[in-house]
Amino acid sequence: MSDDQGLSCRDVVVAYGQHPALRGVSVQVAPGELVVILGANGAGKSSLLNALAGLVPSQQGEMLLGQQPLTDLPPHRIVEAGLALVPEGRGIFGDLSVEENLRLGAYSERARKQEQQNLALVYSLFPKLVERRRQIARTMSGGEQQMVAIGRAMMSAPAILMLDEPSLGLSPLLTSELFRSLRRVRDTGLGILLVEQNARQSLAIADRGYLLENGEIIGSDQAAALLADPAVQHAYLGGAAAKRAG
Ligand SMILES: Nc1ncnc2c1ncn2[C@@H]1O[C@H](COP(=O)(O)OP(=O)(O)OP(=O)(O)O)[C@@H](O)[C@H]1O
């Protein structure tokens, strides 16, 4: 681990009963870095984020945020330590307003102290949410709800933000708007670990990427190099090209 505030995991193993989902995964994210993990359905992407967030137990391996070990901490302590997850499906409270949802993210003592400041930051990064601050969350579009979910995670004052398939259910246009906002979040100095099936669009905004296959990291490189790699194009970008052609 080279960076004081970064996220690193080494040789993480996760199994559901006899079924191995992660077979020794090592990943690093530095502050101010946007890292994407690409993989097909069932590759283990959600298992990795959930293990880092303390939501599923890991059988082996080490997870650190800066110098702080995360392994075996309960999920709320991991959030307090500075690692926040935006889960697949967003998990926002549909009956609450946008601002109530956002404020719920600031539950730790450290986050409450910075609540106003972080709220202002979230609104500056997602200007669309300002005009909708009193709107009931379930009446918002999928893209807007995703912004609320990201904003709420940012209210916990994380050093590293993890997102599980934020583009799910969004049109390509909304996805690129969302991904542009992720770059703005990164530019504030946060590290981002993004899990995506949408390889082309996520590599276009990422700094680095890892390829996860069958519970193992089979490659990693700068995002631009992965985009230009014929093997990556064939395995991960073919679907998108085929879709465009069709
Ligand atoms: N709670 C569980 N119980 C048993 N097996 C599970 C459980 N959760 C995941 N798995 C299995 O572990 C493997 C990895 O699943 P995971 O959800 O991490 O993959 P993923 O890359 O996120 O896939 P997707 O993109 O479809 O969400 C899969 O084979 C999956 O069937």
Topology summary:
Elements: E1 7-16, E2 19-29, E3 34-38, H1 45-52, E4 60-65, E5 68-69, H2 75-81, E6 83-86, H3 98-104, H4 109-113, H5 115-125, H6 127-131, H7 142-154, E7 160-164, H8 172-187, E8 191-196, H9 199-205, E9 208-213, E10 216-222, H10 223-228, H11 230-245
Parallel strand pairs: 3-8, 3-9, 6-7, 7-8
Antiparallel strand pairs: 1-2, 1-4, 4-5, 9-10
Helix pairs in contact: 3-7
Bound molecules: adenosine-5'-triphosphate (ATP).
Low-pLDDT stretches are 240-246
Bound molecules: adenosine-5'-triphosphate
Beta-strand fraction estimate? 25-35%
Radius of gyration: 17 Å
Mean pLDDT reading: 91
CATH architecture classification name of the domain at 7-91 and 160-245: 3-Layer(aba) Sandwich
- Discrete helix count: 11
Instruction: Kindly report the CATH topology of the domain at 7-91 and 160-245.
Output: Rossmann fold
Number of beta strands = 10
- The shape is globular
CATH level-1 class of the domain at 7-91 and 160-245: Alpha Beta
Helix content: 40-55%
* CATH homolog superfamily of the domain at 7-91 and 160-245: P-loop containing nucleotide triphosphate hydrolases
Structural class: alpha/beta
Query: Mind summarizing the main beta sheet?
Result: 6 strands, mixed
Instruction: Record the strand order, biggest sheet.
Output: 6-7-8-3-9-10
Series of secondary-structure elements, N-terminal to C-terminal: EEEHEEHEHHHHHEHEHEEHH
Terminal residue distance: 45 Å
